[in-house]
């Protein structure tokens, strides 16, 4: 009996020693991976991923990031592809789901970071391998699909939208506090993105957050998003009326893929002395307009979608046959303003402001045409009075004779020929 007891004790000590050695080995591997990542030695990390499947799920930073998290944060597209390739390599025997859904301390997976950065290549690399990763929530209940909108990453949104589909998109479009992707897009002034969401996910228009606010309430609480809520004086007002802004158009997946994605900024464009920056910006704009004209003419000739009248050329600011002249008129007016001494940056800021105003009105009309005061998400019953006005309160919005009133400020509806 004594001999058996001694044998059991020795076996227990052996197991403890083995576990201790294994832990020390893992700690050493984590330090090596961290050092290599900080020194940019990604080839060695790929080799480690090839040899050891355990490396795929090792959190190597204090924030709980893996090597894949770090590679995505650094924007190293090729190495991200190499790491994902090793994770999915059957010879390595990695647990793909565990490796691609592993979270850091904030609950973010590698795809969360890729979507936040708006890197389409990385999003495709991960989501095409493991589609369920698109719907993995972080600590705040935000999926990668949600974060692409929260950070205004238009290209990443369309990418993940195409991968997960509309049905899953609805499931992934809401976080813990009840905010949807449409709430966030409007709250952060991403009106071009909000416009696309109202058409792709129309039911989100009626969704309420925990405070009981719909996306329309969020927009109504932003008077500065409209021209009547912004104060423009002096020459700024003149510039404002000299700038033309196109209406937003509904984009399909094929349309968006045809347009392509914007690549990284060429460093050569940045190596320009400050005193030449205005000239380079002007000629860059000139070249962009030429490319835009070429694409628009080709697109108008190739695409006529009967089911998408808003995307039809007839709904543009000017007819297609006058498009070229109109684009060059825009260029001429911009050149005139610059020649009169108005800085390019000043003009660009005013252009962005007018763009925001015009697009906000488009989003407003899209919301109003889809909002039903008698439909409530999650089974809530309609109230007898949708909005009860107490003394001293103001209605967030009202519609009278085709005009939209926000906080006692009236915004006239835009027409296809208006600015």
From TrEMBL:
ANK repeats lie at residues 63-95. Keywords: ANK repeat. It holds the Pfam family Ank_2. SUPFAM superfamilies: Ankyrin repeat. The keyword Glycosyltransferase does not apply. It comes from the Eukaryota. Gene3D superfamilies: Ankyrin repeat-containing domain. InterPro entries: Ankyrin_rpt, Ankyrin_rpt-contain_sf. This is Uncharacterized protein. The keyword Nucleus does not apply.
């Amino acid at each position: 009996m004594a001999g058996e007891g001694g044998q059991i004790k020795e076996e227990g000590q052996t197991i403890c020693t083995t576990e201790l050695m294994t832990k020390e080995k893992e700690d050493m591997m984590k330090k090596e991976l961290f050092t290599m990542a900080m020194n940019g030695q990604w080839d060695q990390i790929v080799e480690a991923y090839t040899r050891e499947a355990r490396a795929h799920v090792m959190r190597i930073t204090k924030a709980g990031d893996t090597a894949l998290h770090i590679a995505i944060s650094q924007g190293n597209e090729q190495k991200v592809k190499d790491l994902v390739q090793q994770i999915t390599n059957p010879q390595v025997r990695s647990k793909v789901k565990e490796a691609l859904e592993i979270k850091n301390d904030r609950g973010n997976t590698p795809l969360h970071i890729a979507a936040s950065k708006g890197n389409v290549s990385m999003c495709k690399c991960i989501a095409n391998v493991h589609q369920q990763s698109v719907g993995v929530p972080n600590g705040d209940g935000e999926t990668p699909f949600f974060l692409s909108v929260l950070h205004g990453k238009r290209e990443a949104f369309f990418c993940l939208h195409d991968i997960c589909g509309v049905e899953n998109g609805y499931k992934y479009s809401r976080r813990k506090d009840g905010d949807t992707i449409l709430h966030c897009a409007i709250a952060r002034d991403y009106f071009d993105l909000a416009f696309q969401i109202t058409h792709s996910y129309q039911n989100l228009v009626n969704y309420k957050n925990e405070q009981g606010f719909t996306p329309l309430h969020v927009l109504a609480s932003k008077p500065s998003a409209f021209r009547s809520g912004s104060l423009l004086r002096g020459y700024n007002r003149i510039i404002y009326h000299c700038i033309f802004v196109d209406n937003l158009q509904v984009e399909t997946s094929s349309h968006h893929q045809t347009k392509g994605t914007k690549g990284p900024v060429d460093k050569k464009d940045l190596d320009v002395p400050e005193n030449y920056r205005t000239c380079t910006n002007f000629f860059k704009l000139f070249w962009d307009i030429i490319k835009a004209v070429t694409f628009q003419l080709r697109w108008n000739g190739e695409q006529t979608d009967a089911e998408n009248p808003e995307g039809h050329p007839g709904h543009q600011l000017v007819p297609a046959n006058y498009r070229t002249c109109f684009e060059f008129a825009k260029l001429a007016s911009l050149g005139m303003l610059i020649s009169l001494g108005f800085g390019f940056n000043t003009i660009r800021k005013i252009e962005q402001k007018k763009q925001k105003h015009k697009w906000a009105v488009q989003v407003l009309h899209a919301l109003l045409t889809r909002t039903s005061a008698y439909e409530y998400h999650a089974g809530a019953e309609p109230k007898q009075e949708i909005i009860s006005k107490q003394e001293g309160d103001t209605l967030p919005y009202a519609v009278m004779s085709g005009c939209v009133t926000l906080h006692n400020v009236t915004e006239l509806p835009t027409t296809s020929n208006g600015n």
